[in-house]
Design goal:
Oligomer: single chain
Mean pLDDT: 89
Low-confidence stretches: none
Largest sheet: 6 strands, mixed
CATH class of the largest domain: Alpha Beta
Order of helices and strands: HHEEHEEEEH
Number of helices: 4
CATH architecture of the largest domain: Roll
Distance between the termini: 33 Å
Length: 189
């Protein structure tokens, strides 16, 4: 491989990795706009109980996230292979879903791990998922065991949220305004 192709592939891998991380943010914050920005409109998703259009999957996830106390995704160990405008990736995920209702209506905590098998396509200079299959490798469930009423966490003033009131949106807005006004250090502009 020549250095120009290596650089092009490195940039593509970086862009794809960012999309994977944005997928996690979109899921965890219940942000439909972010989630849909990860998928091409004709993308297909095979995700356990859901099989269908990627944008429809995004609607499904956002409505699900609204029913639980919190959800956190971690995406790691991504292996991305780029071939022109097509890329295939395998990445591992860990997801903690806190306060999900079980089959009896009782609140439980559900932890799962697995892998995403994605085909990304670059269309109009943008990498997005064209097809995703999900393999669930393990899970564990337990009775809900925590509460924000716990005295140990009462002093934590900044808590994650499942909406646009989450700190990340204020952080991104402040960063954007700072960059436009030139108040960020030069290396951060």
């Amino acid at each position: 491989m020549n250095s120009e192709n290596e650089i092009r592939n490195f940039i593509a891998e970086s862009q794809i990795m960012k999309k994977l991380h944005l997928y996690a943010r979109g899921c965890d914050r219940g942000d439909l706009e972010i989630m849909k920005s990860i998928y091409h409109p004709d993308a297909q998703e095979e995700h356990g109980i859901f099989s269908g259009n990627g944008h429809d999957f995004c609607d499904f996830v956002v409505s699900f996230v609204a029913t639980v106390d919190s959800v956190t995704h971690y995406i790691t160990n991504a292996i991305i292979e780029v071939d022109g405008n097509i890329a295939h990736s395998e990445s591992s995920f860990f997801v903690a879903t806190i306060g999900i209702s079980d089959e009896n209506g009782e609140k439980i905590d559900l932890l799962m791990g697995g892998r995403y098998f994605d085909r990304f396509e670059r269309r109009e200079a943008d990498w997005k998922i064209a097809h995703r299959q999900v393999s669930f490798d393990w899970y564990t469930r337990a009775p809900k065991s925590s509460s924000w009423d716990d005295p140990l966490v009462q002093q934590w003033t900044m808590r994650g949220r499942k909406d646009k009131q989450d700190h990340v949106y204020r952080f991104l807005e402040e960063r954007s305004v700072g960059a436009r006004m030139g108040t960020l250090p030069p290396e951060q502009n």
